[in-house]
Amino acid sequence: MTNPVLVCALRRINAFEVLADALKRFRQCREKLSKSGNLLQTVMALTPEVTFRQAILFFTETDFVTDGGSILKLLSPQHACCLLKSICFASLVGESQRCRAESLFTYLQTGAQILCTVLLIKPGAWSRSLPRILRKLDLEKFSVVGMKHINLEPDIVLGLLSSEVKQDPAVLEAHCTYLASGTALVLCLQRPNAVKKLIDLLGPEDPILAQALDPFLWRAQYGISTVQNGFYGSKSYQIAVRDMKLFFPEGLCCAECQMLEEEEV
Q1: Mapping DSSP to helix (H, G, I), strand (E, B) and coil, where does residue 40 land?
Q2: Same-domain pairing of 127 and 236
């Protein structure tokens, strides 16, 4: 090899899946790129273990102490013989980006981080099906670290609804009327990869679509319509932190859940 190669350490939620998809789309454009004579070859690590072994070849602990999203290094041709091709590998470092700088090597060695998310069981759904829902949560390894009944105020309802819902006055009124029609049950749940796991279990907000995809999705089982679909779940880590601060300002009953103090939304 006569040219340097670029080594990237990347981090984000679902890093391996997202990067693999991006590289797949890149490879689909290879014929077009090759005509220009500037074809870029890429290789990525496929597991956290391989990522760690590759990372320690090219980065030091100091390199990995950062509050940014990536670290780049140019390697000489002598180092490049270890790779054979340009390398682009992702580090799976959990779902949170800490407000203080921390070592990415530490994340790679400690494994999946226990996180919290918020599940709101809408009026009517929890009173009919709470024992079964709690059983499902237990089977999916969720721990309940916060629970309360709540009558949703209009400003809270608006905060839970998507921008698409808010664009249609009739749909917005239907959601607001339903969510204010009775008491909701709010749960703060904890487990590794909690946010994504809960969203995957709930399924699409339309119960008919959920039923078509998988009848065991929770909205397929407990939902009636896009309005009365049974559940609200935090859609991202940042939204989960916001929801926890909103519904549990007094704190939670888990010593491990320090994100309410550490995170800034």
Answers
A1: coil
A2: yes
